[in-house]
Amino acid sequence: MSDKKCRFCGSALTETLIDLGMAPLSNSYLSIEQLNSKEVFYPLHTYVCSNCFLVQLEEFESPGAIFNDYAYFSSFSDSWLEHVKKYTNDMQQRFDFSKNKLIVEIASNDGYLLQYFKEKGFPILGIEPAENVAKMAIKKGIPTIVDFFGERLAKALKADGQKADLLLGNNVLAHVPNINDFVAGMCILLNDDGIITMEFPHLLRLMKERQFDTIYHEHFSYLSFSIVEKIFNAHGLKIFDVEEFSTHGGSLRIYACHANYLGYKVTKQVENMRIKEIEFGINNIEMYQFFADKIRELKFSLLETLIAIKKQGKTIAGYGAPAKGNTLLNYCGIRTDFIDYTVDRNPHKQGKFLPGTHIPIFSPQKIKEEKPDYVLILPWNLKKEIMEQVGYIREWDGRFIIPIPKVEII
């Protein structure tokens, strides 16, 4: 245990948040030819640093291997597209960007967000390490660098005369094993009066609502406002505003600038968020020690529900093939003895199988054809959107199962 070090402050990691056992990489979807080959499982053991309170996983696989052929495409969620389109409008209105301001997005995926800034006439640049995903953005006419972001790339872009006036990233801060290098790179690339916005799932919501399935190897860190503020401060950046959103089960968007820039006043929301986390106990190690018990209770509840349904001779299908779903299914031991198949709108996942559980993935049309009695929604954070899309299951008295934050049948 003593050889494990915090990726931010370097302290020894001795405190466990939760040990979810062994699991495959959550985005390592299998082809039919791979089903009878060996499959690699890694420890899914989450630690909390007793010094700085950063919650984190060890790095067992390199980001290069994880993101080599990435299966997540942001554009397949309508509600997410609505969210980022509103972001582009809000940013332009709030900060009154002139049309010569350079917008840079880190982990720009398939161009889901930058396409809206492009429509407005802004110069844009995407940075995306997954080549297969970046190609989709380039096809949309969005200039994209296929690379991992950090100090090295930031220095190269700066030397090339590029400085970001708006530097943004959605759901990327948790994905980097060297978070110090990543944030230091943002400080280098940011223009003197530039703005950083970062969105990330909020640790407080993860713990309050038992969102353990958001723990998987692709997520190296699990972030509170408190720890993000510490990391940014350590690299010459200050957070001047923060907002809460319902996306991804509950996220924060932070606004930051250079620490010595006085153009943006720190809002009341920053102090409010500090107080909110302190009252929750975010800097109290004892608060973290009860999390595992809550997750075991949730696991037992879900299994009891599924067993009762199967004993009645009913059929269950899954909806979605998200990374979080693979954590849930593997930890709970849910395989094809419970779920016959799952469906997903992403054609890059259709025809493949979920890692570990080997549940087949089909297009959503499969639900209309098979008429299952129950549909387990794996991306529960999109339950409203999915229940509208698949509302036709009511025609045969089908019902939805929501696994988190508590098991519900709707």
TrEMBL record:
SUPFAM superfamilies referenced in this protein's UniProt entry, alphabetically: S-adenosyl-L-methionine-dependent methyltransferases
Residues in C-methyltransferase domain copies: 247-405
Domain Methyltransferase putative zinc binding: from-to ranges: 6-67
Assigned keywords, A-Z: Methyltransferase, Transferase
Keyword Transferase: yes
Pfam families membership: Methyltransf_13, Methyltransf_14, Methyltransf_23
GO MF assignments: methyltransferase activity
GO biological process: methylation
Protein name listed in UniProt: S-adenosyl-l-methionine-dependent methyltransferase
Protein species of origin: Lucifera butyrica
